[in-house]
């Protein structure tokens, strides 16, 4: 059917038919978009949940491996933040946590860049841990104590090096072996080992 005359009913009908598919297509697109959103929501939620579970599992494996690495060397223990915390808790039971606190204070002290802060921090650390009858006096010999005292007159980032090294050696030779034999660490290492075994049996 065709008509070229203006106002012809056939022409209006053709226009109506031509417009119909476009309107339908617009509605179809809209419905498809809405359905797509609804259909993808659970999938996205599932993926996010799976991802978080994988990350949690990965963190557990990492922490388990870390716990077992603490027994490899004292350095491995000191490199681990959770290892330092566990060792500190153990030292508290022996009333000797001041040794680790002094070592940590020295590590922080070495990062100080300001000369003014360096001097004030040095005096504070010396008064708290090193001088005779200090509130938290560490177990170092008289000679090392005097060397450290002299170093304060021209405080540098290295002024506690000798005292820190002596305290570290004391912890490594004395407290660290006892920590590895302690019930708390034995329990932690058993749990870590069982998690590792469980992981291997599922792969």
TrEMBL record:
GO terms for cellular component: membrane. The lineage of its organism: Eukaryota, Metazoa, Chordata, Craniata, Vertebrata. This is Regulator of G-protein signaling 16. Residues 73-189 form the RGS domain. Pfam families: RGS. Residues 183-203 are annotated as: Disordered. It comes from Sitta europaea (Eurasian nuthatch). Its main location: membrane. SMART domains: RGS. It comes from the Eukaryota. Residues 183-196 have a biased composition (Polar residues). It is a lipid-anchor. Residues 1-19 form the signal peptide. One of its GO terms (molecular function) is GTPase activator activity. Regulates G protein-coupled receptor signaling cascades. Inhibits signal transduction by increasing the GTPase activity of G protein alpha subunits, thereby driving them into their inactive GDP-bound form. Plays an important role in the phototransduction cascade by regulating the lifetime and effective concentration of activated transducin alpha. May regulate extra and intracellular mitogenic signals. Keywords: GTPase activation, Lipoprotein, Membrane, Palmitate, Phosphoprotein, Signal, Signal transduction inhibitor.
């Amino acid at each position: 059917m065709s008509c070229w005359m203006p106002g012809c009913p056939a022409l209006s009908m053709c226009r109506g038919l031509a417009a119909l598919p476009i309107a339908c297509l617009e509605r179809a697109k809209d419905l498809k978009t809405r359905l797509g959103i609804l259909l993808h929501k659970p999938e996205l939620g599932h993926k996010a949940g799976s991802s978080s579970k994988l990350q949690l599992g990965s963190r557990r494996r990492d922490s388990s491996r870390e716990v077992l690495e603490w027994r490899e060397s004292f350095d491995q223990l000191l490199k681990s933040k959770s290892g330092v915390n566990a060792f500190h808790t153990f030292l508290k039971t022996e009333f000797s946590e001041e040794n680790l606190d002094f070592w940590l204070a020295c590590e922080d002290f070495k990062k100080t860049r300001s000369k003014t802060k360096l001097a004030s921090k040095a005096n504070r650390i010396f008064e708290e841990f090193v001088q005779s009858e200090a509130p938290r006096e560490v177990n170092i010999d008289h000679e090392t104590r005097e060397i450290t005292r002299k170093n304060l007159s021209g405080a540098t980032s290295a002024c506690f090096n000798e005292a820190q090294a002596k305290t570290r050696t004391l912890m490594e030779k004395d407290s660290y072996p006892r920590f590895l034999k302690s019930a708390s660490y034995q329990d932690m290492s058993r749990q870590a080992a069982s998690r590792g075994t469980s992981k291997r049996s599922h792969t």
